Automatic annotation (TrEMBL):
One of the Pfam families matching this protein, by short name: MFS_1
Compartment(s) of residence: Membrane
Highest taxon of the lineage: Bacteria
Record keyword tRNA processing present: no
Organism: Duganella aceris
Gene3D superfamilies: MFS general substrate transporter like domains (1.20.1250.20)
The protein, known as: MFS transporter
PROSITE patterns in the record: MFS, SUGAR_TRANSPORT_2
Domain Major facilitator superfamily (MFS) profile, residue spans: 28-418
Record flagged with keyword Transmembrane: yes
InterPro entries on file: MFS, MFS_dom, MFS_trans_sf, Sugar_transporter_CS
Keywords tagged on the record: Membrane, Transmembrane, Transmembrane helix
Membrane topology, as annotated: Multi-pass membrane protein
Amino acid sequence: MNTKALGTTQQEGFFSWFHALTGKERRTFWSCKIGYALDAMDTQFLSFVIPTLIAAWGLSKGDAGLIGTVTLLTSAAGGWIAGILSDRIGRVKTLQLTILWFAFFTVLCGFAQSFQQLLWARGLMGFGMGGEWTAGAILIGEVIRARDRGKAVGMVQAGWAIGWGVSALLYALMFSLLPPEWAWRSLFLLGILPALFVIFIRRFVDEPEVFVAQQQKIAATEERASFTQIFAPKMLSTTLRAVLLTTGAQGGYYAITTWLPTFLKTERHLTVLGTGGYLAMVIVGSYVGYIVSAFLTDYLGRKKNFILFATGSMCIALAYTRLPVTDGVMLFLGFPLGFCVSGVFSGMGAFLTELFPTSIRGSGQGFSYNMGRAIGSLFPLMIGMSSQSMALGEAIGVFAGTAYGVMILAALTLPETAGKKLES
């Protein structure tokens, strides 16, 4: 058997969906993927500079946590607003506006002179952060053909892990070249880079044909759907179940990623968490999880894929909080941690795109995903409060397990949409 020829055939089959894309579809794919990576890069800068800010400004851990919570809440509001805007002014224009918005306020963070100024700048940055995901997910979901939508949207989602990795590299570079008091500011100032990318989007990315057809229909009939139609009787059940699905995914993610480092450092006394090796394992695992889930969401279907990765995430939470682990084991577990909790999200954009009709797709997708984010952001707070009466590890397990359980139940009740053609 010619193994070389067999390998080539398998490789061509693996990437055949991308080779089949038109020039317009490829430009849209790369613009959404790079935009999402830049969004992640600007967003993750804060996590790296918090120790420096605590030392320089005397911030408490509560102050640092407040910045993160405010960012999540404003990003939830921004995501819904961007969804409504994308139905009104277009997916591409909304994507441009959200990128410019989060780039501007990321740069503004670099000029902050106090905790209050940073809190305001970061909070305003959140509007663009959440809005970019909504606009980009709708755009790529509408452009790609039905049979490849899950793979394409999932590959775009994988841009988050790339942006996370780039932010870690830039952090290492800036703090090796500059003193800490200048390094953290320079990191935020690099947040201007995404604004330059808008020039490419403006020149080379067009609105999806299904959206253009919908706008022509509106112009002919002078009837435009209101964003409140996602709460109309025939859509309300779908909207609420979609919120439960995204609440489970994001509540579980925040429960695990927010409190696990504290639990492992304070109760398990592990030192590997402070090394770049552990972070690298989590980031690589996240990227691989996004990619694998992207293909499985088309192969298995949206619902089975959600259930598979939600179950895997529950098992990871159990392993971290219940099993005796050493530094070596913890380093190894970084990969499946990133793989499972990130892979959960890979099929989300395609699924939400398919759940809502074109006339209210932005409103429905923006609201359901970002309401889930807003509710999910409360899980770390509830774990912190519960840990006063129960062990921290137990609290993490309870809330993470509950979150992913809710996600599985929501997935079971929602319709399977894999292969669905979008119609206006």
